[in-house]
Every structure is written in C-alpha cells, then in structure tokens.
Amino acid sequence: MNLIKIKTYNLFWLVALIILMIGLIQDHFEDNTFDINIHDTYFVIAHLHFAIFLSLTYYLIGLGYWIVQKAMKRKLINVLTIIHSAILNGSFLVYWLVIGYSKAFLETPFPLFDNYQLINQTLVILTILILLIGQPIYIINLTIGIFKKQKKAYS
After folding, report:
1. Is 51 exposed, middle or buried (0-12, 13-18, 19+ CB in 10 A)?
2. Element containing residue 146 per DSSP (H, E)
3. How far does CA 52 lie from the centroid of its chain?
C-alpha cells in the first residue's frame, strides 16, 4: 500500500489554516471574545485576533521546519520532531475536544453564569506543556539540525 508521506511543515501549515478558518467562523457569533482574568485585571481578545496570532505562530513553526529540511537540506532528529508535533498538534486537538465536551455535557444551573473552569484549566495545562516542553524541543531540534555536520558521500 502506497501511503502519501506528510511532511511536518505541511502538517503545521494545515493546522494554521484550520485555526484561521475557525477564527473566521467564530467571528460571526455573539460571544466572540477570549477573556483572561489575572487577579483583578481582565484581558479581552477577539477570537479572530487570537486565531490570527495562533495561525501565524503555527505557520512560522512550519516555516522553520521547511527552511531546515528543504532550503538547507539538513536532517532533523525524528524523535524530537514527532514529540514536538504531537505536543503542539495534540494540544490543538485536545483543546477542541474539551470545548466540545463542555458544550455538549456540562450544563450550568444559572444561564448567565459561564462555567469555563474546565476549559481554563485545560488552557493553562496545555500552555505550560507547550512553552516548557514543546518549544524547547523545537529550538533544540532546529539547532542540532542546522549545526550538525553533514555526512559526506564518498565516491
């Protein structure tokens, strides 16, 4: 069976496109803001602006992989690439599964009270996972790929 081999940078570009499409779709809803409460300060960000930021981030990560693999013709460490891709793309999938679960199964007794505790906890855990494990692995992988000496083919 001949399977099409999906490159890592194509996967990140595909997720960037999906994030942008979700942001454009959610821009038409009534509740289209992302609220962050830190102590007594609220940060209110439109879903579209947050989607553009995340989409650009995923695009730049894919661009980093493309530059090292295609433009520089360097090999990356497969295990690190898989771990990084699983953390970032898995986080995207887990976030949307939690949102779907909370909208389908969690009901609030008071309709004006938003119960976003599960979603907020998921966001905090995924952000910590991405920033403390995923992104350092990405930086290490690209650095090793750039500075690793190429094996010379002897003829």
Report:
1. buried
2. helix 135-147
3. 12
Q: HSE on the CB side for 102, CA within 13 Å?
A: 16
Helical residues (DSSP H) of 3-134, grouped into ranges: 8-26, 47-66, 78-105, 117-129
Summarised one tens digit per residue, pLDDT across range 13-68 is: 999 999 999 889 887 777 778 777 778 888 888 888 988 999 999 999 999 999 99
- Per the structure, the complete domain to which residue 114 belongs is given by 77-147
- 155 lies in some domain: no
The reply to whether 43 and 105 lie within a common domain is: no
Q: Tell whether pTM > 0.85.
A: no
Taking the CA atoms of 122, 92, 100 and 18 in sequence, report the sign of the dihedral they define.
positive
CA angle 111, 100, 97 (to 5 degrees): 145
